[in-house]
Amino acid sequence: MTAAPVESKRIIVGAGQLAVSAESGDVLSAFSLGSCLSVAVYDPLIRVGGLLHVLLPESSLSPTRASTAPATFVDTGVPALFHALYALGAEKYRTLIYVVGGAQIIDDAGVFNIGRRNYDALTVLLHKHNLRIRGEHVGGGLNRSVALHIATGKVLVRTTGQAGEIAL
Amino acid sequence: MNELDDYINRVKHLPPAPRVLPQLLQLLGQPEVPSEKVVNLITYDPALTASVLQLCNSAFFGLATPVSDVAEAVTQLGFQQIYRLVVAASSSRTLTPPQKGYAIDQGELWKHSVTAGIAAQLLARAQGENENVVFTAALLHDIGKVVLSEALEKRYADLLLAANDSATPLVETEKKLLGVDHAQVGGRLLDRWKFPPNLVSAVWFHHHPRAAGEHAKLASYIYFGNAIAHLLGHTYGHKAMALTGRAEVLKTLDLTPADLDRYMLLTMDELSRVETLFKART
Description:
The complex is a heterodimer of chains A (168) and B (282).
Chain A: E1 9-12, E2 17-21, E3 26-30, E4 37-43, E5 48-54, H1 63-68, H2 74-87, E6 96-101, H3 114-128, E7 133-138, E8 144-149, E9 155-159, E10 166-167
Parallel strand pairs in A: 1-3, 6-7
Antiparallel strand pairs in A: 2-5, 3-8, 4-5, 4-6, 8-9, 9-10
Chain B: H1 2-10, H2 20-28, H3 35-43, H4 46-56, H5 70-95, H6 108-126, H7 131-139, H8 143-154, H9 156-163, H10 170-178, H11 182-192, H12 197-204, H13 216-231, H14 247-252, H15 257-274
């Protein structure tokens, strides 16, 4: 007798949202990130993972919003993602961290550099907590989408206008 | 000018002119809006009337009793709202189909356009500018892509090569390959469709608002809406993010970079609020 195939379920993580899962069939996806940043975190031992889709670096822009939708900002979204993963049994020292998005338009003056600011805010925060990025596909002029497969911890990146996927 | 007309004349599936829009814009721009003329103009187009009434009676507005004609709809919802529904109903069919030359899939150009339209409108409202004109201009800013997509498809190999170079703006790549860009073609098309000169000029120069002269402010609103759509990731196909940053636009609109952050959030919220009114159609 063979085991019933695990049904694959795609969970879409919209801008300003996060999702975590311990279901091996789940795929967490964030589409068309633009300057937004997606952080995928995975604990390979117990196979739980989470995906975050933030828009902006700092919650000081709108503390009210940060309290109701922490996943809007890097500084409140990342802690919220880790806490949700801890609740599923993940351990900080085992987590693998991947970062996707943070694209830029062509902007020498750096006025429209929200993608860069998102990435900088994230790296400062991770550094403070002794966490390292294991893989990333960030910056430049690419509009990306990302998918985290809970069964395997695989992180796949797609870019608009280009065929195929890249595994981080 | 001839070259632009050539592209417009050559395209196999030229979208039908949204005849009602320029006339409606003109009527709504009058100090005293002639409501009978507005109602007649919309009613004259049965398909448009049906779409508008359907939207009016959708759950979004939660009207106690459904409206059965345009006059009633105007009374219940007001000119502003009806205008937005007319623009949505008359533009979505044109902007929804895939644009293969740009690698833009079904519904993507519409989503981009609606995002730009909403962002520009929110700012115009906050600054007391004419929302209808700003919304229409920003919603239609990429209409030239509908014309140039076929021509780009024929230059696909060259385009793919150019697409890897994300440091060159899309408009420059278009000019290099075709001799014209989508902003110029869009402006010319809107001119042929009898849109007012300010709107034509603003679309024409939406990648370089200062060049729009006396219409630089309207062009800046489009630029702003377009930039917010890019930052939010509502931009698709080849060279999706290859837009040139123009810091002077913020100055023209009296904004600071922090306002970009704020308007990203405001636009996202408004989009999710009005989503059902701006569904893609084919």
